[in-house]
Write a structure and sequence with these properties.
The chain is of the alpha+beta class. About 25% of the residues lie in helices and about 25% in strands. The chain has 7 helices and 11 strands. The strands form 3 sheets. It has a 5-stranded mixed beta barrel with strand order 4-5-6-8-7. Strands 9-11-10 form a 3-stranded antiparallel beta sheet. A hairpin with a 5-residue loop joins β10 and β11. The longest helix has 19 residues. The protein starts with about 45 loop residues before the first strand and ends with a strand.
């Protein structure tokens, strides 16, 4: 893969962490344009490696974390589950992606989680076992000087090619913010980096495959399509809509809305905001 500037092979952890793994600080060389340091939307989903999570900077305890000097809150990554610790209030997973390890916490709230009630409390842990790979969507947090990821959604990786895809995606976004957008032969940016350029100007990011209409939706159920359409068209603030509000608007049972939301979360079409039951359309 030729990125330009004689860049022909990745050394950013796509080989599973060989030779130190991850995105090593100071390995890039060259200048970093100031324009790339602009703040993008706070709720943009950022693909990353665990080493990037561990090395993320935080100017002060109340500040957002930064990766490649760009503020991040919503992150996604993959890792192999090394350990599972079940407690009364949460389940803690230790994940390893070859570049580092991090703890992922998933909080248990069976009383207020209709999804768990409907499925006997197994919805959040189904298929998540030691030595298997999982994908995590969540927020980077710190408590008592220890970092962890608070998981909104955690799913087992069904297709191992998703691991390679994620590492390539994380590498691409890292290079974009550290070395600038990749240009085509005619000097005009194309694809993902052109859409990322809009993030610096508009405070948001849309990319091919998002819900902005660039390509057909994945194979999702009719209920999921109705919920997604409701989220896209209903008046709302940055916090999105609660699933009970969606159920009332669509005159659907809450459990059907929850199941549809679970499906949309799995396909990365929506994300949770203030709690697990409040969603917004994911445009990244």
């Amino acid at each position: 893969m030729d990125y330009g500037g004689n860049y022909t092979a990745t050394s950013y952890g796509a080989q599973g962490g060989a030779g130190g793994g991850g995105f090593m600080a100071g390995s890039q060389g060259g200048s970093q344009p100031n324009a790339l340091r602009g703040t993008i939307s706070r709720d943009t989903l950022r693909p990353c490696t665990i080493k990037q999570i561990v090395d993320a900077s935080q100017p002060h305890p109340d500040a957002d974390f930064k990766i490649d000097d760009v503020e991040v809150q919503q992150i996604t990554f993959v890792g192999q589950i090394r350990n599972i610790s079940t407690q009364t209030t949460n389940i803690t997973y230790k994940l390893d992606d070859g570049t580092g390890t991090v703890e992922v916490k998933q909080w248990i709230d069976a009383e207020n989680d209709p999804m768990d009630n409907a499925r006997g409390g197994q919805a959040k842990t189904s298929g998540l076992v030691e030595n298997e790979w999982a994908r995590v969507w969540g927020r980077l947090k710190a408590f008592n000087n220890r970092r962890h990821v608070g998981a909104h959604v955690m799913r087992p990786v069904a297709d191992k090619m998703d691991i390679t895809f994620h590492l390539l995606e994380a590498t691409y976004v890292h290079l974009y913010f550290t070395r600038g957008p990749l240009e085509s032969k005619d000097g005009v940016g194309t694809g993902l980096h052109r859409q990322l350029d809009g993030a610096r100007e508009n405070g948001d990011v849309k990319m091919e495959g998002s819900t902005g209409g660039e390509r057909p939706l994945p194979n999702i159920s009719a209920n999921a399509r109705r919920v997604l359409q409701c989220l896209k068209e209903s008046p709302q603030n940055n916090e999105g809509l609660h699933n009970q509000h969606i159920a009332a608007s669509l005159r659907m049972p809450v459990i059907d809305v929850v199941n549809a939301g679970d499906e949309l979360l799995t396909h990365s079409l929506i994300f949770t905001t203030v709690d697990d039951n409040t969603w917004a359309v994911l445009e990244f």
